[in-house]
Structures are given as C-alpha cells and as structure tokens.
C-alpha cells in the first residue's frame, strides 16, 4: 500500500504541468469511459465542498442507493478519497484499483507531452472503482477549480457550487469573479445547478454560465435555504426549505451556520437528483433526511478530538474558512480560555488566516505541519506577532511539541474546565493533530 501511495504521489501535481483535460479525456476513452456508467453529482466551491459532499452521500445512502464518494484531500490515508457505501476502499481494493488502471495510465503517459499527475491517476481509479462496484450514483468533489479539473471529464446531472472566495489565486484568478469563471465550468448543458449564497458579482458569473449552458438553477435564499436553526448538544437543530417541501427539526451533528447552509445545499442537490428520475420520489422523505443528516460526519471540520481540555481541529485554510470557524466556535462553545495552534502553508494568505483568530484566542502557538509547503515557524511567528502582539505568540519547532505546549497553556487557568485548544490553518494541520491525539 505504501509503495502504491508513493508511486501515485510521485507523479506530481497537474498545475505544475498545464491546465488541460486532454490527458484525462484520453485516459477515459481507452478505459471505456467509466465515468459515464452512473449519474454524477459534481461539487465545486472554495469552502464547504467536502462537508456538503458527505451530506449528499449520506442522504442518498439513506434512500437505499449504493454510493460512490470522491473527495480530497485526505486526513490520514489516500484511501479516504475513494469511498463506496460510506467506507474507504480497503488496502487490497485500493491496490487492485491502481493495478487495473496502471496499464492505461502508462499508455497515455507514452502518448502525451506530459505524464498523468497524481490527482488525474486517483480520479481515474475512483471512476473505475465506482463502475466496477457498480454504484447507483457518484458524488464527486473537484480537486481545484472546475473547468480544467480532472474530475470534469464527467458530466454531472447536478452541479453544486458552494461559497466562492479567494483561494488558489495563483492558479484560478486574482478575484472571486475570475475564480467563479473557472468553477462554473462544472455546470453542464441540461444539468441542474444548486448554488449556495454568493456575493452578487460571483452569483452573476454563475448565473450567466448556467444560462449559456441551458442549466436549471436553484439558489440558496430563493428556491431553498435554512428557515431556522438553533444550537443543540453536539450540533444544531435546523429547519430547511427544500425545492419540494420543508424539513423541520433536523438534527445536524456539525457546528456553525455554514454547516446548516451546507446541509440545505445537500438536501436541494438530492431533491434535484431525485425529481427527474423515473420511478423515484420527487420529495425526499423527512425521516430519510433526518437519518441521512443525523449520521453525517465531517472529520477535521471543527471536530472534537480530545476532552479535558477540549481540543478542536479544523481544516480551514483561507480567510473565509477561518471566519466561518470563528463564528461557529463562538456560537457552539463556551470556552473561558481558548488557545490557538496554527500551522499554515507558505503560499496561502497567512495574515488573512491569523487575523480572524485574534479576538477568539487568548494565546497562539505557531509551528509547522508535515507538508514541505508549511511556512517556517519563525516566519509564521513574525507575522503573528504583528497581529497578536509578541507576548501572546509562542513558537514550537515540531507539531507534537506545539500540541503539548497548547494544551499546557490551556490548562494553566482551567479551574472550571472551560479551556480549550483550536488547531487550524490547513487540512494537513488538522490531520497531523488528529493523528497525534489518536483520532480515528
């Protein structure tokens, strides 16, 4: 398994090659187009893609459908990216999927100017595994962008666009509107586009593309949305207006208004998928909605991985994501003292990640995560000192030391058991802390 993971990662990232679907299209052609063996619900956006994809998958599985789920990145094992019926591929099945596609991958490598990247290879494995299962429906999250993303060789019957903000600006564009142009590329002719609330200029880009494609559009806040929500133990209770009806008193075991919005998008996507299909109920049964959303999990998204003190991990890695995390923590938790732990990628808007945290945390521990792209702790500390003040910033060279230091700082004044630690700044940071604290 390790050898296979290393071989896949050794192929490098596609944006270091060039933005094109030529390699992926050629690969799908010689593999017999497995991505067309089942309907696809395709998801893009800047934040909320993975959580929404997991909700869609859980809702569809509650309906009795066999599901394929493709998300990225992983928290602990590459196998997490490809799931069938809610379970990652086993090691044996993952290795077999790689062995099955490798001859075709090598053929395309020999015929193209550049060989297939690791994400293109994984995407081919997912599409082939779903066809082999076979699944009734695949829920597919883009890797980055949309138009040129490897997943876009599939034509989604439903395209879900979660909130769009600035991220990956080096590759997708310098403005949210330019990024929206790229992400709108998953909206295909004749599809149904489920669009989360967006800034007006972003919404205009998406609406224009949908009109040009002849797609039907369902917009959060107009055709569907969250009617009411209130904090509950372990999550929240939400009332959702769907495309075909209202769903009340739904327990969602995730925190924050952004997750309620994700749930509304997921319900609308499942309704949009179900309604046109012959023999399928147009209305998603409320008990199935309660079951599907009630059992959903989104690891690494404001996840409690330890108690006494409480340690939360969150994969937010851009300013918009961090802002949503801060709002959710303030709403759902009553910390008397919260210590931040941050490791972020050097190519991100690190100052923009740090600034929303300043009013929330009393002290901040900065470190590096296990990615070679991680910002050096000393550089991160210098940025943080300008925002938090030098006396509130602590530096740890290693993640394990940073966790120990953050926990110790939280415990210093934890007489009433109200202290906590929030580890964030990157998906890799969330994964590293989860691993160190033994989260499954």
Q: State the helix count.
A: 15
Mean pLDDT: 93
CATH architecture of the largest domain: 3-Layer(aba) Sandwich
- Low-confidence spans: 277-282
Q: Structural class, from secondary structure content?
A: alpha/beta
* Strand residues, percent: 15-25%
Number of domains: 2
User: What general outline do the C-alpha atoms trace?
Assistant: globular
Largest sheet: 8 strands, mixed
CATH class of the largest domain: Alpha Beta
Distance between the termini: 19 Å
The CATH superfamily of the largest domain is Mur-like, catalytic domain
Q: Kindly state the number of beta strands.
A: 17
The CATH topology of the largest domain, please?
Answer: UDP-N-acetylmuramoyl-L-alanine:D-glutamate ligase
Task: Report a brief summary of the structure.
This protein is of the alpha/beta class and 440 residues long. The protein has helices at 2-9, 22-30, 49-62, 91-111, 118-132, 169-172, 176-183, 200-213, 257-274, 286-294, 319-332, 350-354, 377-388, 399-412, 427-436; strands at residues 40-44, 67-70, 82-84, 87-88, 137-141, 158-161, 192-195, 216-219, 225-232, 235-241, 246-252, 303-306, 310-313, 337-342, 363-366, 393-395, 419-424. The chain is globular.
């Amino acid at each position: 398994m390790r050898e296979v993971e290393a071989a896949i990662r050794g192929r490098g990232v596609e944006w270091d090659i060039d933005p094109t679907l030529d390699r992926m299209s050629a690969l799908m052609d010689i593999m017999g187009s497995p991505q067309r063996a089942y309907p696809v619900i395709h998801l893009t956006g800047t934040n909320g893609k993975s959580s929404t994809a997991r909700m869609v998958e859980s809702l569809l599985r509650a309906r009795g459908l066999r599901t394929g789920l493709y998300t990225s990145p992983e928290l602990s094992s590459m196998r997490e990216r490809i799931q069938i019926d809610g379970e990652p591929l086993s090691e044996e099945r993952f290795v077999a999927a790689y062995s099955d596609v490798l001859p075709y991958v090598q053929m395309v490598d020999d015929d193209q100017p550049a060989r297939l990247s690791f994400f293109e290879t994984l995407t081919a494995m997912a599409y082939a595994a779903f066809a082999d299962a076979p699944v009734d429906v695949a829920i597919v999250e883009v890797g980055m962008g949309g138009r040129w993303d490897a997943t876009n060789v599939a034509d989604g019957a439903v395209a879900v666009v979660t909130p769009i903000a600035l991220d990956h600006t080096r590759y997708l564009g310098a403005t949210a509107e330019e990024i929206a142009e790229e992400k709108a590329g998953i909206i295909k002719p004749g599809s149904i586009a489920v669009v989360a609330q967006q800034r007006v200029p972003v919404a205009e880009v998406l609406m224009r593309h949908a009109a040009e494609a002849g797609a039907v559009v369902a917009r959060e806040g107009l055709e569907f949305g969250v009617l009411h929500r209130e904090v509950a133990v372990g999550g929240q209770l939400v009332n959702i207006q769907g495309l075909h009806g209202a769903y009340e008193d739904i327990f969602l075991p995730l925190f924050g208004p952004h997750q309620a919005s994700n749930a509304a998008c997921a319900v609308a996507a499942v309704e949009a998928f179900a309604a046109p299909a012959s023999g399928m109920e147009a209305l998603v049964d409320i008990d199935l909605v309660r079951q599907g959303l009630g059992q959903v999990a989104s690891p690494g998204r404001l996840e409690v991985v330890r108690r006494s003190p409480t340690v939360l991990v969150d994969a937010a890695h851009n300013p918009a994501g961090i802002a949503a995390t801060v709002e959710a923590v303030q709403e759902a938790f009553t910390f008397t003292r919260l210590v931040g732990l941050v490791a972020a990628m050097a190519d991100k808007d690190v100052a923009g990640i740090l600034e929303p945290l300043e009013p929330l945390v009393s002290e901040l521990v900065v470190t590096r995560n296990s990615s070679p792209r991680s910002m050096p702790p000393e550089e991160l500390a210098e940025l943080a000192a300008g925002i938090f003040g030098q006396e509130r910033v602590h530096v740890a060279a290693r993640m394990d030391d940073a966790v120990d230091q953050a926990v110790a700082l939280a415990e210093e004044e934890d007489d009433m058991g109200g202290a906590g630690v929030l580890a964030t700044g990157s998906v890799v940071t969330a994964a590293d802390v989860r691993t160190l604290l033994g989260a499954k």
